[in-house]
Design brief:
9 helices, disordered C terminus, 47% helix, alpha/beta, 325 residues, seven-stranded parallel beta sheet, 9 strands
């Protein structure tokens, strides 16, 4: 408990905080206008999970074009090998590893094999994910478990495998591919949205922990895109926000990695949505979301009658009723 004698010290601390906040606010618009200072990833080893297709493949190949060596992880071994082959054509080292990111033992085994085959990892991209598009009561227990195993628990196991060497060298980068559903709750994606909220929290807490440990050379980036046209969620539509193309999202992610950005929302207008969520009452937010008219297909209607649907660690087809939110 502070005493009267502590008042001058507290005032100085408050003044320091205010000055730092003002400086940060001053730099923020300048960073948008001035060319960004970037680093090189040439020669560094990257692990990209869920890289057999979609955004994972584009990320692995994008890093390869920048001169980074790539370890391609995916439950689809053939797809992973195809990605690795394309990366090797770009003149870098690349290997494919068949990894089930829902299994801790599989992740630990693959991590040790990567270190043995290719060396210490500098960049880890946790991209693998699953989604089951349905209302909460229509989900099977194993689908909920799978969602959390892949979308968040796998991040713990991969980071615990590769972070120690990054800390020793005070050099590394951990990338969390999350979602705007991890910033704003999405109905009919309750399990997915919950797992992505956890992923956003994981990235934020990890970044704070690294700062506390004085390891400013180990960076983190959390990517939160709006709906991306990969088939992960089928036929998404909105009145005001266009569905994103994966190439544009990955291009933005790569620039964020090079610039050392901590949080990336795509499109950038989503920052306004997050701010409004903090400021407006629930009823006002519901009116805004209704006006946006977001819709996508689910495996079942709200009554919970299931049709076919498949799970994967990369976007898969989900068929069923189209639901407007």
């Amino acid at each position: 408990m502070a005493t009267l004698g502590d008042v001058p010290v507290l005032l100085l601390l408050l003044l320091r905080v205010l000055l730092e906040c003002c400086w940060a606010l001053l730099l923020w618009p300048l960073r948008l206008l001035l060319p960004r200072q970037t680093r090189s990833v040439r020669g560094e080893l990257c692990v990209v999970t869920g890289a057999a297709q979609g955004m994972g493949r584009l990320t692995a190949l994008g890093l390869a074009r920048l001169g980074a060596h790539v370890a391609v992880w995916d439950i689809n071994g053939e797809g992973a090998e195809d990605t690795a082959a394309q990366a090797r054509e770009l003149g870098v080292q690349a290997r494919a590893y068949k990894v089930d990111c829902s299994r801790r033992e599989d992740i630990q085994r693959a991590a040790e094999q990567v270190k043995k085959d290719m060396g210490e990892v500098c960049i880890l991209v946790n991209n693998a994910g699953v989604v089951f598009v349905d209302d909460l009561l229509s989900l099977e227990d194993h689908e909920i478990q799978k969602t959390f195993d892949v979308n968040i628990l796998a991040h713990f196991w991969t980071v615990r495998a590769f972070l120690p060497s990054m800390l020793e060298r005070n050099h590394g980068h951990i990338v969390t591919v999350a979602s705007m559903s991890g910033k704003i709750g999405t109905p009919l994606l309750v399990n997915y949205s919950s797992s992505k909220f956890a992923a956003v929290g994981f990235a934020e807490a990890l970044q704070a922990e690294l700062r506390l440990l004085g390891r400013d050379g180990v960076r983190t980036t959390c990517l939160c895109p709006y709906f991306v046209n990969t088939g992960f969620v089928q036929n998404p539509q909105s009145r005001f926000v266009d569905v994103l193309e994966p190439e544009a999202v990955v291009s933005r992610l790569l620039s964020a990695i090079l610039a050392g950005e901590t949080l990336v929302l795509i499109p950038s207008s989503m920052h306004c949505n997050v701010l409004l969520k903090s400021l407006l009452p629930t009823r006002a937010l519901q009116a805004i979301y209704a006006t946006m008219a977001i819709s996508f297909k689910t495996r079942s209607g709200l009554a919970g009658t299931k049709t076919s649907g498949e799970e994967s660690q990369e976007p898969g087809a989900e068929r069923g009723a189209k639901v407007r939110l």
